[in-house]
């Protein structure tokens, strides 16, 4: 019997069977609440048999059948009444326990309990009900209007894209009422983590307090968004509040799904398993690289899209260059396992990258997706997909492994009305305006535009969103601003040299400098200095401050 305790007085479980009744009584339960209709599945025990045996065991049993996926307000009210009147503690059950947990969550929301508390309680019991958060908030709002604030522009996300958008808006219209929703106390310059993992940057230089970066005149709502209600022009927060808006900008970044690789969470940060995609792990990458005297180094890349698609390769190149300089390269075998069918998505950059692959004698394994890892045994398993679609499992050992997790839009975005079929915020790729809700805009990693998900892309997107949003509000005249898909991947192929890949939609090259000054198709010292010395100040003091250096938006013809 699989019992999940939500509160002291209520637990939920998958379908129980008649021979479970003695165990239910022995566990101290005094009542049973059945939320599963009879005959919902073959060989399902009939409630009358459960009720008879419960009575013989001194338990009270009640039948409250609810159709899966069709919970009504009447069902919630009935569950609330039953939970109040049945002898406690109560065991509620259905097919998997999810229906009973969901009924409890809606009933608690009706009582006014904070959505965040409800979600925490159900998650602790083993049920992730984030997708039901909008309904929970609606249940709470049915008794009392909970829209506590309203802003002309509401921005969800205080990362690079969100703060840049806020600053660009205030630079154009200083008196505009803007708020940013983000629960984080620290803001990170994530492009710097590659250099932390190579021993070039100290981790501390990539972190600043969020409070120090919120633009002047912008309200910071330090909470997490859990749901969107575009019909009501409102965003629901985890604490139960609802914040209204005239215009909405969605820029929450993406979700790193560390749990999407079996065994990864348990071994991250030890056993030679690391990733530059986390602030606390990038220093461990450098520790492993510095101390590896021989053996096998494996680098992985998941299916696209991911943030900074070149980062997995950059970790490999910088590590290999360190081993080359230390005279250890011949003692270390290097393998790149990537789920992609090629080394890089823009063909002009592949030949110079292949020169470094040969220099470091790295082995490339295309269409290999990491699915499982055993850190203590130092083994990793990949699903290899052949060109004809057939799949096989490939196992390999490692002495160190740099892992990049699969990535997707945040849950509350994927489950919202704003999402496209793939879960990203559905925007027009040129204007970055939502395709169905014209008062909503999206930018950064969570939007559906088919550009590379990089900070450089957000730097170019923010002015476009600011211009078009203010134009729609009547503060700016003329045509839309247009985003051309610009993204930049500074490929650190060795310490002191970078291949500066700059491109837009369709892989079109979009260099920022004339070729005589900086040819992005050739590794150069100039590009390294740009990455190491100029881009961090450009980020902190330009992009996040609304200074659109080399990012002025182009208007549609």
Per-chain topology:
Blueprint: E1 4-5, E2 10-13, H1 21-26, E3 31-34, H2 47-56, E4 60-63, H3 73-85, E5 90-93, H4 98-110, H5 115-124, H6 133-143, E6 147-156, H7 160-172, E7 178-181, E8 186-188, H8 193-196, E9 207-209, E10 218-221, E11 225-229, E12 234-237, E13 242-250, E14 255-256, H9 264-267, E15 273-274, H10 282-291, E16 295-301, H11 311-325, E17 332-338, H12 350-359, E18 362-366, E19 368-374, E20 379-385, E21 391-397, E22 400-402, E23 407-408, H13 411-414, E24 440-442, H14 455-472, E25 481-482, E26 487-494, E27 497-503, H15 525-542, E28 554-555
Parallel strand pairs: 2-5, 3-4, 3-5, 6-7, 6-13, 7-10, 13-24, 15-22, 16-17, 16-22, 17-18
Antiparallel strand pairs: 1-2, 8-9, 11-12, 12-13, 14-23, 19-20, 20-21, 25-28, 26-27
Describe the model.
By secondary structure, this protein is of the alpha/beta class. It folds into three domains: 4-143, Protein tyrosine phosphatase superfamily (Protein-Tyrosine Phosphatase, Chain A, Alpha-Beta Complex), CATH 3.90.190; 150-254 and 409-555, FAD/NAD(P)-binding domain; 258-407, FAD/NAD(P)-binding domain (3-Layer(bba) Sandwich). Helix content is 29%, strand content 24%. It contains 15 helices and 28 strands. The strands form eight sheets. Strands 6, 7, 10, 11, 12, 13 and 24 form a seven-stranded mixed β-sheet that branches. Strands 1-2-5-3-4 form a five-stranded mixed β-sheet, sandwiched between helices. The chain has a five-stranded parallel β-sheet with strand order 15-22-16-17-18. A hairpin with a 4-residue loop joins strand 11 (225-229) and strand 12. Helix 4 (98-110) runs antiparallel to helix 5 (115-124) and helix 4 (98-110) packs parallel to helix 6 (133-143). The protein is globular and about 90 Å long. The termini are far apart.
